[in-house]
């Protein structure tokens, strides 16, 4: 191949059109081709990720967009809730007054525990703490009712309770010192600070 010389005022430049210019064009084409292929692969990866997220979301949600019951329960269990029959329970890790305890439970979508049966009473009696339950007579002295407004029908008072020892005792604890589940309630001043047991129904 014959070399071509280009003269200018400063010097002469020798180049080979078929080799240098064509070579540069080929390199540019290869670069663009690689960029296009990389972009295509990136699009495929993103599409696969989006499909995966959609599949996961569909698995944990129902037609209305709410989290499935099983998934909700798993979430509750991971943050300390436990189940008995148709209710979920959460025993606090801090002590509060009865009113503040109830506010805490309500803030969690629950309320202080309402005992509806001897089976439930035996269940909560197995918890190794003294704690507030949702029983009080703050509306009418001596007329005990639950936080859901239902009157007291099943009685699990400790011996000599309710006693009102030392003043007005309008709130109730599940007392730890009694060994019998059927005799473990004790009335206390609502200002006292205890652990507390929240209860909420399992979502349908």
Oligomer kind: single chain
Specify the CATH architecture of the largest domain: Roll
What structural category arises from helix and sheet content? alpha+beta
Topology as H/E string? EEHHEEHEHEEEEE
Write a brief structural summary.
This protein is α+β, with helices and mostly antiparallel strands and 204 residues long.
Outline the secondary-structure elements:
Blueprint: E1 4-7, E2 12-15, H1 17-60, H2 69-78, E3 82-84, E4 87-91, H3 98-107, E5 111-112, H4 118-125, E6 131-136, E7 145-146, E8 171-174, E9 185-188, E10 195-201
Task: Report on this structure.
This protein is α+β, with helices and mostly antiparallel strands. It folds into two domains: 4-60; 81-201, Mannose-Binding Protein A, Chain A. The protein is 35% helix and 20% strand. It contains four helices and ten strands. It has helices at 17-60, 69-78, 98-107, 118-125; strands at residues 4-7, 12-15, 82-84, 87-91, 111-112, 131-136, 145-146, 171-174, 185-188, 195-201. Strands 3, 4, 5, 6, 7, 8, 9 and 10 form an eight-stranded mixed beta sheet that branches. Strands 1-2 form a two-stranded antiparallel ribbon. The longest helix is centred in the N-terminal third of the chain and has 44 residues, at 17-60. The chain is elongated, with a radius of gyration of 37 Å.
